[in-house]
Write a structure and sequence with these properties.
Blueprint lengths: L13 H6 L7 E4 L3 E5 L7 E7 L6 H7 L2 H17 L8 E3 L3 H4 L8 E5 L10
Antiparallel strand pairs: 1-2, 2-3, 3-5, 4-5
The structure holds guanosine-5'-monophosphate (5GP).
Length: 125
Amino acid sequence: MPINATLPYDDQNIFAKILRGEIPNKTVYADEWALAFHDINPQAPLHVLVIPRGAYVSWDDFSARASADEIAGFIRAVGHIAREAGLVEPGYRLLANVGGHGHQEVPHLHVHLFGGRPLGPMLAR
Ligand code: 5GP
């Protein structure tokens, strides 16, 4: 079920548990600002989730409350991961779902990074 992205941060969400090491993940990249790991149900040959270490519900929450250092660190991590995976030349897609219409299911900001094949039109029609 999609979440309501205006609710306060719930530190029992699955990605908070992954950040605390309570649930295993297949880590692709980790630094001071971000953790990246393979999606458990991949929608493309490469499907990585990149999350900030801070407690932010969504892109809306992050863009409103995060510090400039957190935002820069997170955005740079996303770009670094795509470059390291060799995705720049063939191309790739970033996606951040927000709230009900965005069909966001996990209430901790995550950017989906898809690559490894032509990804088709942006949205299902
Ligand atoms: P959303 O719809 O919120 O943008 O996407 C949530 C994503 O998290 C989905 O693609 C789903 O497969 C992934 N996911 C949900 N639970 C887990 C988990 O426990 N581990 C990993 N690695 N991915 C998860």
